[in-house]
Amino acid sequence: xxxxxxxxxxxxxxxIEAAVVAARLGFNTALITLEVSKIGLMSCNPAIGxxxxxxxxxxxxxxxxVMGKIADRAGIHFKMLNTSKGxxxxxxxxxxxxLLYARVAQEVVKNTTNLTIIEGMAVGxxxxxxxxxxxxxxxxxxxxxxxxxxxxxxxxxGVIYVGLSKLKAGRAGEMPVEGMTENLIALGxxxxxxKTGTPPRVHRDSINYDVLEIQTPDKVPVPFSFSTEKIxxxxxxxxxxxTNQKTHDILRTGFSRSPLFTGMISGVxxxxxxxxEDKIYRFSDKPRHQIFLEIEGYRAKEVYVNGFSxxxxxxxxxxxxxxxxxxxxVKILRLGYAVEYDFFPPHQLKHTLExxxxxxxxxxxxxxxxxxxxxxxxxxxxxxxxxxxxxRGEAPLILDRxxxxxxxxxxxxxxxxxxxxxxxxxxxxxxxxxxxHDNADLRLMETGRNLGLIDDRTYGKFAKKKExxxxxxxxxKKSVIKATDFNERFKDxxxxxxNNAKAEILLKRPEIKLKQLLSLISENQFxxxxxxxxxxNIKYDGYLNxxxxxxxxxxxxxxxxxxxxxxYQDIKALSAESREKLMKIxxxxxxxxxxxSGVKPADISVLLIYLTKKNYF
Length: 617
Description:
Blueprint: E1 3-9, H1 13-24, E2 29-33, E3 47-49, H2 53-63, H3 67-74, E4 75-81, E5 91-96, H4 98-110, E6 115-119, E7 122-128, E8 131-137, E9 142-150, E10 159-162, E11 165-168, H5 180-186, E12 192-198, E13 201-203, E14 213-215, E15 238-242, H6 245-252, H7 259-262, H8 276-282, E16 290-295, E17 302-306, H9 314-321, E18 332-334, E19 337-343, E20 361-363, H10 373-392, H11 405-415, H12 440-451, H13 456-478, E21 480-481, H14 483-489, E22 501-502, H15 503-507, H16 514-518, H17 528-539, H18 541-558, H19 576-585, H20 590-594, H21 601-613
Parallel strand pairs: 1-2, 1-9, 2-6, 9-20
Antiparallel strand pairs: 3-5, 4-5, 7-8, 8-9, 10-11, 10-19, 12-19, 13-17, 13-18, 14-15, 15-16, 16-17, 21-22
Helix pairs in contact: 1-10, 2-10, 2-12, 3-4, 6-9, 13-17
């Protein structure tokens, strides 16, 4: 059978989410992948989550995605990051057993009803009347489809570099995809080149662990998925070491043979995850750089040398890495390399991730210029959901910046000029006080449930949490703590009370925890997430109210819709740059227009006055 409702191209993190969600929403879905055994393979570091990325994983899970569930089953070192800082910037992260993660991902895909896996290379699409009609494979097969989602990763015309040697490949040992870029350009799309890199992998038994800093996992691991009761598998340590001046001196000897510095690579790499040669070039005053050694699995021999991403020649890599403490006698199993690939600037997309030029054609993941498994998966689930909703003729799912990190990610992609791979940061989210990892369910699970993607058991836990939050808020507001009880309970922690005091007032003291305070006012047990939510809301009430007022202003601009037919070139009071950017992106509302790179506040004022006079508002 060569006819499907939805065809997903690519079996990486974006493709998995897109294909699984499309199939679960009832559509006959095909997942095209070069090799079934490579579905879900972690191309770079063996970890899921991290700063801001952990929030993305929990949001994907709250919508009904699978990344968090897979990560929970394959995680071998869970760590909550930034615990010394405020809850808004804390993020879950987990080292994964790399091969186990892929096996679990493949199990999920294979066991999904309505989902067919096809081994092959997609090299083009068929279009009729500006609407997707088919996906064409290299072997001549043409799959008829009503919607397609391209999640091609680093495979589009991919080239791998080690020193001055280069090889056509999408990643180590795998062929690139040729033809798809050219097909899309012929259809009117704009393409560009980006690059990313990976460090050497070394043999775990050749490392001297005695001189390394040990990084222990959390004693009580916090799962990614709201459906996971607890992490039961054993946890292992990771390790830290550092480069030194000798390392840097040896690395510099390879600059003349570096594809990065000789101009062989034209694509720009990720600024916040630079190669080691780029780091010592740009930060020459730094005497050392941290190296994080990530063991790739319980029985895996490979250790990922995080922080040592490089495309320098083999002899330089080998000499330099053996100057690092603990790695003096290390055996390199695979050299580091850079990979350059095609991407399609995402201003060509709607917020649904559907392309503006071709109906029911969606792009998700690194094809949009992003970096990271989590960013890819977040785009994948949104593209999959919206492809399904399009075919149903229903309203799309669009998350805005005040609702989710996913909303920030997609909005940034569409409105900003991207000269390097995009990576999510907590600082990118202006409403991050309200977008925490622990309340992703409160923000998004009702949406996932309404779509039919959240099972009864998970939703039951969620409903209990919401009920406990309401009960607990009411209890705290009405409770008064006796001074004698408080002073006895917190005598070594907090300033004594002279008179009885409201529990809500006492909880605003930074040293007082709600869990401790509850022992004085209730014998009932509350959902731990409810306790955390209520405590946060009371302690940070002033800051949260300020953000809520900011969101109200944000929504005012978002609600000022811009007409599709508006010709910005006719508004001569706008700057030339703004006219060009507004015509290119065609924002849906005034808020989006204000976030476009190069559009100045003065131009937004001009636009507002113009549209008011024309009675659009």
